[in-house]
Design a protein that fits this description.
With 180 residues, this protein is an alpha+beta fold. Helix content is 28%, strand content 43%. Strands 1-5-4-3-2-6-7-8 form an 8-stranded antiparallel beta barrel, surrounded by 4 helices. The protein is globular. InterPro entries: Adenylyl_cyclase_CyaB (IPR008173), CYTH-like_dom_sf (IPR033469), CYTH_domain (IPR023577). This is Adenylate cyclase. It comes from Marinifilum breve. It holds the Pfam family CYTH.
């Protein structure tokens, strides 16, 4: 089970983030239109990611904190246009759908996402990844902190929730407004 130390933040200037990543020789993997369908899970979070670059069933545990946080992730690579989504929806029911355009970059073991999420806005994510548990957590934390500074991410822009949580909150808020 891979371990990551990660952050998510609102991003007011994605062009600046791209500039910094490119000037640090980040490996650009491409732009992916991703649909993440979240399912009801007894523990952790379960989502099916459907895209052109990444297609995975993802089960993960993560604390909702604004600072960098540890995630324990199980990934199962899927195929585009599989029937898995239909099976999971029938068996578990879907909770939320996140529609986003994601730019994917890597510097060594650190993955960067420059995201535009439908209904939420623009974000940046940093994930210091240890695929085989050979990197000490302290080193992953140092990497994450280094890139927070390098990308000029302000502490007030850090967010603790997943995109699905934010969308559900927006939906609930809008429903309350309609009812009033």
């Amino acid at each position: 089970m891979p371990v990551t130390i990660e952050i998510k933040a609102y991003c007011k200037n994605q062009d600046r983030v791209r500039e910094i990543l490119k000037s640090n020789n980040a490996d650009f993997k491409g732009v992916d239109h991703q649909i993440d369908t979240y399912f009801h899970a007894k523990s952790g979070r379960l989502k099916l990611r459907e895209g052109k670059i990444e297609n995975n069933l993802i089960h993960y545990f993560r604390e909702d904190t604004k600072t960098s946080r540890e995630s324990k992730v199980n990934l199962y690579q899927t195929k585009a246009d599989s029937t898995l989504k239909e099976i999971l929806e029938k068996a578990m029911g879907s909770r939320c759908v996140v529609d986003k355009k994601r730019e994917i970059y890597f510097i060594d073991n650190v993955k960067f996402h420059v995201d535009d999420v439908k209904g939420l806005g623009k974000f940046v994510e940093i994930e210091a990844i240890d695929m085989d548990r050979s990197i000490p957590k302290e080193k992953l934390q140092e990497q994450c902190n280094f890139y927070i500074k390098l990308l000029e991410i302000n502490a007030k822009d850090l967010i603790s929730q997943s995109y699905s949580d934010l969308l559900e909150q927006n939906s609930l808020f809008n429903q309350i407004l309609i009812e009033e």
